[in-house]
Design goal:
- The protein has 175 residues and is of the alpha+beta class.
- It has a domain of 95 residues: Ribosomal protein L17 (50s Ribosomal Protein L17, Chain: A, Alpha-Beta Complex).
- Helices cover 46% and strands 11% of the residues.
- The protein contains 6 helices and 3 strands; from the N terminus they run αβαααββαα.
- A hairpin with a 6-residue loop joins β2 and β3.
- The chain is elongated.
Length: 175
């Protein structure tokens, strides 16, 4: 059972299990990581005797120096999750810990500007003010409409002359 669990732990980097199994699994995992840090053929064969998948052993031996290089131990973390709904057994999450420390972002506090000086923020480059356009004259608007009508004669409606209007009235039968 622990061979399968340690294989899953190295394959997925974290697994959920009961507290007691997680504590025992920690011993197995720490031993295998120590073998992987050694990195020689004998250590690889010892790891293959425990871990069920060759790909997982290969991944472990490739990443061991980078991930756990400077640490002398403590490669896993156990986080208690609570109780399992079915039988109320205490459940934990066991996960591998990386060697790289978490970098905290330093926030610089801005000093408040003195009340005597008025500081204006420069306009942001994303928001540019557009100059207002002067309204176009009626002549320009009419000229654009005529140009559009001459460019696309099929879309413009032909004007009816007085002769054609009277002809249409004659063609329509009166009731």
């Amino acid at each position: 059972m622990f061979r399968n669990m340690v294989t899953s732990l190295f394959k997925y980097d974290r697994i959920r299990t009961t507290d007691r199994k997680a504590k025992e699994l920690r011993r197995w995992a720490d031993n295998l990581i120590t073998l992987a840090k050694r990195g020689n053929l004998h250590a690889r064969r010892q790891a293959l005797a425990i871990v069920r998948e060759k790909d997982v052993v290969h991944k472990l031996f490739e990443e061991a120096q980078d991930r756990f290089g400077a640490k002398p131990g403590g490669y896993t973390r156990i986080v208690r999750l609570g109780r399992r709904p079915g039988d109320a057994a205490p459940v934990s999450l066991i996960e591998l810990i990386d060697d790289q420390p978490v970098k905290k972002k330093k926030t610089k506090k801005k000093k408040a500007a003195p009340a005597d000086k008025k500081v204006e923020a420069p306009p942001s480059p994303a928001v540019e003010e557009k100059p207002e356009k002067a309204p176009e004259s009626k002549e320009k608007i009419e000229a654009k409409a005529e140009d559009a009508a001459t460019e696309h004669p099929e879309t413009s409606e032909p004007e009816e002359s007085e002769d054609t209007a009277s002809e249409k009235e004659e063609k329509q039968p009166s009731d």
